[in-house]
What we know:
By secondary structure, the protein is mainly α. It has 13 helices and no strands.
Amino acid sequence: MVAESSVKGKLQPEQDRQKRAWLCMVLLTIQYGVQPLLSKRFSGKQVIMTSIVLSCEVLKVACALAVMAWEGSLESICKNWQFFDALTASALPAGVYALQNPLLQLSYRHLDSLTFSLLNQTKLLFTALFMFLILGHKQSKQQVGALLLLLVAALLISISQNASHVPSELDNGQTFLFGVVPVLVASVLSGLASTLCQWASQIKRRSSYLMTVEMSTIASMCLLVSMIKSPDGNAIKQQGFFSGWTIYTWLPIFSNAVGGILVGLVTTYAGGVKKGFVIVSALVVTAFLQYAVDDIPPSVYVLGALPLVILSNIIYQRYPYVVKEKAS
């Protein structure tokens, strides 16, 4: 009886962990799938882009602080926090993210939700590249093949944007320039920033939530400085920070901030492999919602790219590089 109760006692925490993992994965799938549609619908061209990005960074800080307080780690982190450590660990990736976020907002406004989501997956390709160049992380043959599939999918979508007739006031060339190009550049920056964050996590032993606070704070300061001479800064001075906002504008901002927290929880409870399946599931959610809500069927090129992106993610997560043991 004692042995049986002991086994049950050990199984209970593992069962709780699995329940939390599945809950977080479901929520993150919904968040990933809905985010492009929320951003396109509720943060339109009438809203000043910098006001969206700044608000999102502030909310990220608030969410990360709330999670650390809930975990009980906030007080100890504050006592041990040092400015120089924060500067060396978080300043560079924060600067990269500060460049990336406005590009994503620009792309949201000029691409349909599914096309944006598919192109955004190219960050896996650039993350792998920077992981190899900076941290020396190698890829398996299967992973290299998966990355090539992803590249083919990106080319298909790029062709789609040049070949199709886009229902907007912009011609196809402008859609490519203001939609496809920004999200691809943002994917390059995302790959670099992710690698820098992993370097800080491994070498500097920084908490992911603490880095969220540090990076969002630094990125906000960079944006505030850039507003001195930028068109967005002049628009905010003349029209006000919340010009063009409605109550619904907060939806994509809140969703984005919560998504950042959910990524950390999924990685903690489920691991990186299952996070990859979350991304794949989210693409299907985006495709379904775009057709159901906006009545926009995917083009032939996008339909061809969708299975390539899904297959690429599955292969990449399932066949990691294994270090071969040296023969003695």
